Amino acid sequence: MNRDELGRAIKAACANLDEPRVIVLGSQSILGSFDTTALPPAAFLSREVDILPLSGITDPPAVEDKLLLLDARLGEGSPFHMSFGFYVEGIHKDVVVLPRHWEHRLVHFIVDDDTSTLYGRTGLCLDPVDLCVSKTIAGREKDYEFVAALVAEQLVRAADIRARIDSGIEWPPTYTENKDLSLDRARNWLSSLADLTATSAKEDPASNAPASVAADIATALLGHPRSVEQMLNSKNRGENPSTSAASPDTGPTREAGPDLSQ
Hints:
By secondary structure, the protein is α/β, with parallel strands linked by helices. It is built from ten helices and eight strands.
């Protein structure tokens, strides 16, 4: 997915919801902060955009019907999906783990919309560190690979993710796992990630911990039978992913600035 596609998803969601702004919660919210050319491929492979209507924050009782509307009109298997090759999934805030005060760090992704003078179409995208906190605590293999790729490219720092976790977590009411164990797992994984990326950069300073090792790092931390040293020292990685990213796109205007109250 690229920024143009994210913009189309935001415009379609706003139009169908008859709302000026929506919140982008999933991995594709990273496109609110970076162009595809700045991102490792692992960061924009998903063809799904997780969207929460802003009314899900300001008027929670009304959100269920709007989530169903998004899934019916723009979701997987919909005409929108068939036409554009990606889809929108309506996401309730109560299924997402986020750090405290995430709503004050949202990145405004403004989409040009010549058909509307009443609304400016805006996607409120998660701050990259907040996104990585959510994924690290989720702890799935694909989440680890996503975070490891961003850390390897130095787009976020493992220490900043750890600090954001330590500042406090908003646990949704649907979260049933042991919270202390989840936090310990996330912190331990981030510590290992920081050590491995530092080792990689030290062994090959010119590489600056390239994204090509990110998947190996994530896999190593999940208990891959190959040793970490073998993975980091592999010389047969093929094409550098940073040279095969999607073509440059300027995308809609990015304007950092949190504000859910207006």
